[in-house]
Amino acid sequence: MVRVSVLPVSYFSALQNGSMDIEKWAFIAHKLGIRYIDLPVWAIRERTSVYLSYIKQIFSSAGVRVSMIGTYSDFTNPDSVQRQRELDYLVADIALASEIGADYIRLTDGQAYPGLNRNEAIGWIADNFRKAAVRAEEYGITLAFENHGHPSAWIYDDFSHSPSVFASVADAIRDTGVKINFDTGNASGCGMDAVSMADEYFDEIASLHIAETVSNVTTVHAALGAGISPIEDVLRLLSERGFQGNISIEEDSGNGEKGIFQAYRFVTGILTDLGMEWE
């Protein structure tokens, strides 16, 4: 059985400016029949015991669970002291995920800083992923590295935004204990065949972001089904190969609650048609 969760990117601005909070998102998900929600780590405003107890009670009252937390680790920073900070931040995020009941953490590798030595940077990534995976295993958390683009939290593009660099990083981390979070929108947005890419990395994929793009040059999000990403074909491949991980709907249509409901119905409808059991 696969798990279906929702990452409400359409609500990110509201979560950032305070016009929406985690409580409101949890109860919207409940109203829409969504059992698992995802959160960016920055949406969790505090790490005090009072606050964390409060949001855990909110999740319980809403009848939802957090499936994945999205983090922004930056292990390509040329400053070795900053790379150590980034590892410490990630370890703290792993502990946070465990406390609020999440099972997955979405990882990034780092920024494409000007002048980076590619092989040296890949070594930094693999080394820090390996160290983080040791702590994640202790907490029962799965770390999943994403084929990513350019988060708003960063100045530069993701180091592995290029498909060739992603392939090199994915190869270097195979023995670290870190898996892959495969993003359909980012794959198509890089001009890649998302189905072939998912097939190639299937054994390493622990989770997916089901996302849409209208461009094959860079990721330009849209409502699911309104772009060029072969979402149904990717899900069919997963069904045929017996995927049993997390499927996260990255909803970024800008249509709020209506867009989230449509995206959830779109993906779960495909899963049902494919005969995949989901929760």
List the helices and strands and how they pair.
Layout: E1 3-7, H1 12-17, H2 22-31, E2 36-40, H3 49-62, E3 65-70, H4 80-99, E4 104-107, H5 118-139, E5 142-146, H6 163-172, E6 179-183, H7 184-189, H8 194-200, E7 205-210, H9 231-241, E8 246-250, H10 256-273
What does the model show?
By secondary structure, the chain is of the alpha/beta class. The chain has a single domain (3-273), classed as Alpha-Beta Barrel (TIM Barrel), CATH 3.20.20. The chain has helices at 12-17, 22-31, 49-62, 80-99, 118-139, 163-172, 184-189, 194-200, 231-241, 256-273; strands at residues 3-7, 36-40, 65-70, 104-107, 142-146, 179-183, 205-210, 246-250. Strand 4 (104-107), helix 5 (118-139) and strand 5 (142-146) form a beta-alpha-beta unit. Helix 2 runs parallel beside helix 3. The longest helix is centred in the middle third of the chain and has 22 residues, at 118-139. The termini are close together.
Assign the CATH topology: TIM Barrel
How many helices in DSSP terms? 10
Total discrete domains: 1
Helix content: 40-55%
Low-confidence stretches: none
Radius of gyration: 18 Å
Q: Could you give a short description of this structure?
A:
The chain is of the alpha/beta class and 279 residues long.
Keywords for this entry:
279 residues; alpha/beta; single chain; TIM Barrel; 15% strand; 10 helices; 8 strands
